[in-house]
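Notebook entry, structure prediction.
Reason for the run: the old model in the group folder had no record of what sequence produced it. Starting over properly, with the input documented here first.
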Amino acid sequence: MPDSLENIALDKIKLLNGQVVSSVEDADFILFIHCGDNPGASYRDIAQNVRQLMTQKPVALVDLSEDYDYRECLFPSLLVNNTPVPQLLSYAGWNSASNSIGTALAQGAIVVLQSRLLSPAALPSLYARNLTFNCARFWTTGHISRRFAIK
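New structure, fully documented this time:
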């Protein structure tokens, strides 16, 4: 991408009519962008940070690789670190920065808005559909298929 990750994120936030806030308390959710640049590196500290942030607010995770190498992605470290990945608000990666950031933000915004508009009885269905979409994203990024034997 011919622009910084920050500028791409700001552009996508603007498209959603959103705004960047200075405190987690004021946020609807946290956009966390990871762009690995070291194949095989341990991203344990970053994974622990994501897990800790998930206790404060929903997290929309963008998991990119500088060299399109799955070993640069954060997802395997999240699994090893016992991060509750099913609880991620949204997940996108293994695509262009613009596409991944836009997907994670749009999904996060849709789920947060719907959770405010739907009746309490409809929330389990919303969360189940969101988890289904996230699981498809986990699978298509290749992390699960590389981590587990598929039969």
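Summary: Confidence is low (pLDDT under 50) at residues 145-151.
The old model has been moved to the deprecated folder.
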